[in-house]
Amino acid sequence: MSTETDTGNFTLTRTFALSPERLWHVMTDATMRGTWNAPGPDMVLEAEKEDFRVGGQETHHCGPAEAPEFTVDTRWYRIDAPQDAVFTETVHAEGATMATTLVTYRLTPQDTGTRLDVAVAVSSFVGPEGLDEFQAGWEGGLTNLEALAAKLSA
């Protein structure tokens, strides 16, 4: 494991055929998040503790469906439905803290749907490869969100 903190940031943008209010619900409801936020098809995101409010803290387990190995602690700092939300996530595995991220959701009405920008700042404690893994995880989650939104808008 790296003894240094590696930092990076990225912004991902997607457009959905859902209203901001409907997309907001899909993105912030704990049950709905569990259906799209795991990064891959054989992975899960299971809620242990849910507390979606400013100052709320949540705990999820994420990873392979047969043995989710990551614990994700989330703290909500700003919730302005249905425009934006800001939160941190700290990821732990095998007794070590792997990374902390600062995430901002911004939803903007666009035509008959919504533009979503997800800005993520990462501090990786496991080396620079952690930065790429977090971006790949978010891209996988948003791909799942696109598929779910397409079903909901049909």
Commentary on this structure:
The protein has 154 residues and is of the alpha+beta class. 27% of the residues lie in helices and 48% in strands. It contains three helices and seven strands, in the order E-H-H-E-E-E-E-E-E-H. The protein has helices at residues 20-28, 30-36, 129-153; strands at 6-16, 43-49, 57-64, 70-80, 84-93, 96-110, 113-124. The chain has a seven-stranded antiparallel beta sheet, with helices on one face. A hairpin with a 2-residue loop joins strand 5 (84-93) and strand 6. Helix 1 crosses helix 2. The longest helix has 25 residues, at 129-153. The chain is globular. The N and C termini lie far apart (46 Å). The model has no long low-confidence stretch (mean pLDDT 94).
Q: Give the helix/strand class.
A: alpha+beta
Q: Rounded to an integer, what's the Rg over CA atoms?
A: 15 Å
Q: Compute the number of helices.
A: 3
Across the major sheet, the strand order is: 1-7-6-5-4-3-2
Kindly, what is the distance between the CA atoms of the first and last residues, rounded to a whole number of angstroms? 46 Å
List the helices and strands and how they pair.
Layout: E1 6-16, H1 20-28, H2 30-36, E2 43-49, E3 57-64, E4 70-80, E5 84-93, E6 96-110, E7 113-124, H3 129-153
Antiparallel strand pairs: 1-7, 2-3, 3-4, 4-5, 5-6, 6-7
Helix pairs in contact: 1-2
Kindly summarize this structure in a few lines.
This protein has 154 residues and is of the alpha+beta class. 27% of the residues lie in helices and 48% in strands.
